[in-house]
Amino acid sequence: LEETMVLLQKILKSPGCRKMPLLVSNEDDVIVTASNFVSDRICPIFQVSNVTGTGLPLLKMFLNLLNPRTPLNSDAPAEFQIDETYTVPGVGTVVSGTAIAGTIRLNDTLLLGPDSTGTFTPVTIKGIHRRRLPTKEVRGGQTASFALKKIKRSAIRKGMVMVAPSLNPRATWEFEGDILVLHHPTTISAKYQAMIHCGAIRQTAAIVSMDRDHLRTGDKTVARFRFARYPEYMRPG
Predict the structure, then answer these.
(1) Terminus of the chain with fewer CB atoms < 10 Å: N or C?
(2) C-beta neighbour count of 102 within 10 angstroms
(3) Cα angle vertex 217, ends 213, 221, to 5°?
(4) What gap in Å lies between CA 87 and CA 113, rounded to an integer?
(5) From the CB of residue 162, how many other CB atoms can be counted at a distance below 10 Å?
(6) For 137, phi and psi rounded to 5 degrees?
(7) Are the beta carbons of 103 and 139 closer than 8 angstroms?
């Protein structure tokens, strides 16, 4: 653990990152880090045990003190990211995740996708649960579960979205992004494959091209990626 902490602090203080690591050990540390988090200079470190639960109250307190990074507009077109899928006896296919924008109501028809061919399929919301209780609507920023009409669980995967038809969603095979290499034992070049975590998306992608021939620890660049298995729904930003 000590070696991990030393390596983590070294990475955060590196020229490419330039963060100020702060080990959170009490409620005063939580208040200081939460109030200064918008500066992008402080990086809080929480030591949490999944076995005993040690440190979880401080982490929850920190998350509750943070302000939303983006304004939530309930009148915007609906967007929902799918994190999990289930099959519930007597109900059918159920998806859970986070509403990114807009308001989703019972019996709304949204576009589900993209599938392996990049297609979006209309689906109807037949049931909504939030915090284990039925509700009639979900707004942006809230997590919820939806029961869907006439759709098989096998047709849904994590990382798919449900969006309002007015958005005219398109599937994306390739995208560009800024890269900062915090730590890597060797060099990174074109055709290098990495796991992409973007919202609910978790998929391997290969570097098609970038501004530099090689990348090493601490380097920055703009690279173009291509997903390995299927297209995804992505937005600029």
Answers:
(1) C
(2) 23
(3) 45
(4) 18
(5) 28
(6) -155, 160
(7) yes
